[in-house]
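The methods section describes the discrete structure representation at length, but only in general terms. The central task, working out the structure tokens from the amino acid sequence alone, is never made concrete. Nothing conveys this as quickly as seeing an actual entry. For illustration, here is how one protein appears when written out as sequence plus structure tokens:
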Amino acid sequence: MTRYTWHEQQWKSVETRLQQGRLPHALLLTGPQGIGKVEFAQQLAAGLICSQAAGTQVCGSCQNCNLIAAGTHPDKKQLTFEVDAKSGKVAKELKIDQIRAMAESLALTAQFGGYKVAIIYPAERMNQNAANGILKTLEEPTEKTLLILITDFPSRLLPTIRSRCQEIRFTAPSKQQSKQWLSSALPGVAPEPLLAMANGAPLQALKAGQEGWLELRNNFYSQLIAVSQHQMSPVALAAQLAKQPMDLLVVWGISWVNDLIKLRQVADISQVANEDYTQILSDLAPKANLQALYAWYDDQVKLQTLVQRSLNPQQLLEKNLLDWQAVFKA
């Protein structure tokens, strides 16, 4: 398993705790999306379960490693959104039945005599019953059991859950480090626009490059520009965008308005994340009301939560885009 260079500090933290016999029964991995929190958890679980290598390393050839690689190790559990076998529909929350099944498994003796590890993500999407259910497991840990909760939004977790976990924070690598890594992963592809649409998160940028998000992002920015210039109806655009991946649109919207705020305040193009749109952003910024830009940024952050729950994304987008157009009123 490859360890990302920007995780060095987090690995040192975990390995020190393990060497000193202070590894807790629950870890909370926090930080922005797309920087490898889930991958870190997977690697940590494999290292703890491996029967040959020391610490958190893996040998890659023992029976435990082979079972981990096949996804069938009985002492490693992973809990995320359920997918309906018939419709293929993905659930929007983690449910109490999943938590109960995981707790029952963790309560059993490890089949291979080592660690038992359970990974839960995104932890903030546990419904109320599931969140209450996980508290019992956190309060009554069994020996050599590690529960790893992963979230992009730790503030959305119950305080009682956060207080029972030791938090490990992850941050995005430097812009230069991200560019170098992404250029190596996607040779011949310009890394800057991919990193911009991923808010500097290299793994999210890699996914963007592999899945062709650049065209979708460019279309979205063109549409925002058209709305700001009163050349496109916010209501009509809302109907179009409601069919697009809302989580991505919100992230790109946050990046776009962040750039405008920076340019409106200090006019420093070196701070622009969307480098391929520097000139357009520089032209737009003086026309925008700064207070309205801040308000629209706040709305975008709120939208990250609302789009996960709303059954009517078009209605949310209509208000959001009308507010965006108002940013540029005289």
Observations:
- The chain has two domains: 5-169, 212-326.
- The first strand starts at residue 26 and ends at 30.
- The first helix runs from residue 8 to 19.
